[in-house]
Design brief:
The chain is globular, with a radius of gyration of 18 Å. The protein has seven helices and 14 strands. By secondary structure, it is of the alpha+beta class. Bound molecules: D-MYO-inositol-1-phosphate and calcium ion (2 copies).
Length: 270
């Protein structure tokens, strides 16, 4: 393991903690305004402020690294980046709808990959007082305590999370998959933060999570789930425009014992 990895992890944790304070303060003081991207996707002034804070600190400290950020560089051409260049993947607020509605399920997500390897992930949930992190090959943790996936053995006892896209026209096949899960599993949760759904699988609070999401939603959480023992795979095999290491299209993450059963349930032509 490169000695830089520990340093980068500490740096990412510090950024995520400070960003979390900004998020809590903005909500306590109601100092944010709402806007809409592409007419339907909520974004607040706090998403932008937190993004600016995180990205400017990365540029200041690691000018040779690249940044893929939901709010300031979502169209970054990842294909042109060398295999040895660290790429930070930032979601300043994962769970913006929750944030704006006064819910607590909100996170800052910071991931870093190099070439085809996820190196580190930090997901800080400031209203919940929980900070999750993982370093490749070193396990996953929540507030310093090691995480492990659940030992669920049967679908009928499994609790499964998913999410729905802002784009309503894409809903029909998702609702059909949710129906299949509901018929065979214990229940379904829609918590509103993909990054936290992945951490909940890592913590054994959920047995599986599936959704089509963007790189910034999953870059950190996928490593945290993986390092806690989850299997990270896909129920859609469509070619993605994103490199595999940050491809969130048709993502299925579950406790390994049940992965094949979940896949059989939702890997259907719809
Ligand atoms: C959203 C959340 C949500 C998921 C959506 C994401 P945002 O991210 O992760 O749980 O269902 O697909 O877009 O917009 O709050 O950063
Ligand atoms: Ca997100
Ligand atoms: Ca976001």
């Amino acid at each position: 393991m490169s000695e830089n990895y520990e340093e980068w992890l500490d740096f990412a944790k510090a950024l995520a903690m400070k960003a979390g304070e900004m998020i809590v303060t903005a909500r306590e003081n109601s100092t944010f305004v709402r806007d809409y991207k592409m007419d339907h996707e909520l974004v607040t002034s706090t998403d932008i402020a937190v993004d600016q804070y995180i990205c400017s600190r990365i540029v200041e400290n690691y000018p040779s690294h690249c940044i893929l950020s939901e709010e300031s560089s979502p169209h970054m051409d990842l294909g042109s980046i060398g295999d040895d260049v660290p790429v930070w993947v930032i979601d300043p607020i994962d769970g913006t709808v929750n944030f704006a509605h006064g819910h607590h399920h909100v996170a800052v997500s910071i991931g870093l990959y190099i070439g085809d390897q996820r190196i580190l992930g930090v997901v800080n949930a400031p209203f919940l007082g929980e900070c999750f992190w993982a370093l490749k090959g070193s396990g996953a943790f929540c507030n310093g305590k090691p995480l492990a996936v659940s030992s669920a053995q049967e679908l009928r006892n499994a609790l499964v999370a998913t999410g729905f896209p802002y784009q309503k026209t894409a809903l029909t096949p998702i609702v059909e998959r949710v129906s299949r899960i509901l018929h065979h599993c214990q229940d379904v949760r829609r918590n509103g933060s993909a990054a936290l759904d992945l951490c909940w699988v890592a913590a054994g609070r959920l047995d599986a999570y599936f959704e089509s999401v963007k790189p910034w939603d999953m870059a950190a959480g996928a490593l945290i789930a993986e390092e806690a023992g989850a299997k990270v795979g896909y129920y859609l095999s469509n070619a993605s425009a994103w490199p595999d290491v940050v491809n969130g299209e048709g993502l299925l993450v579950s406790t390994p014992q049940l992965y094949a059963d979940f896949l059989a349930l939702i890997d259907v032509d719809l």
